[in-house]
Amino acid sequence: xxxxxxxxxxxxxxxxxxxxxxxxxxxxxxxxxxxxxxxxxxxxxxxxxxxxxxxxxxxxxxxxxxxxxxxxxxxxxxxxxxxxxxxxxxxxxxxxxxxxxxxxxxxxxxxxxxxxxxxxxxxxxxxxxxxxxxxxxxxxxxxxxxxxxxxxxxxxxxxxxxxxxxxxxxxxxxxxxxxxxxxxxxxxxxxxxxxxxxxxxxxxxxxxxxxxxxxxxxxxxxxxxxxxxxxxxxxxxxxxxxx
Length: 243
Fold this sequence. Notes:
By secondary structure, this protein is mainly beta. It has strands at about 1-10, 15-30, 35-50, 55-75, 75-95, 100-120, 125-140, 140-145, 150, 155-170, 175-185, 195-205, 215-225, 230-240.
């Protein structure tokens, strides 16, 4: 289970907004064979944004259901494939021209495929991750309270991601740092702009022993940089229990 909060800021004129997003993820997985693990995760998101471009706000509630499979290819290498259904419901309000509000929803999907490699060097664990993530959300058309119609729209994004992590084992805790690079391979963002960003993360993992054997807690904070008019930062806390 992971709980995270993200602070978001967008300075682009046509979508200028700022606010935050709270996310909660829970999942179960089972090792089916020595090399195959399968599971499913459920993610809920609630975000609130002040939309400065139209003097209003946006409230979104989202839900993602994602089954996944992890395959061990070698002692130091594994592959994971994830697919899922995404549903969002949004309430909008604006004051530009005249006060008005509306509601809309979206149905979509997400898909990812990745490779993960890791190797110990004494007390140091070095890890690398690379993969592709694709998302698609189709938003419904809606009519505002004042009668103004808004057309349906579809958002699409395909990203390539690579990252590296260095962890230091200090029993029973393991501090770590991660640097990630993401590149937009395909998208339909009409505003264009930057196509890549960097994420810098620092965290601390704790591993239980004795009666708490199998329990892991993780706390991290990250900052995304690289896109000239967009910024966000996230703090996360996670728990995992192997039983």
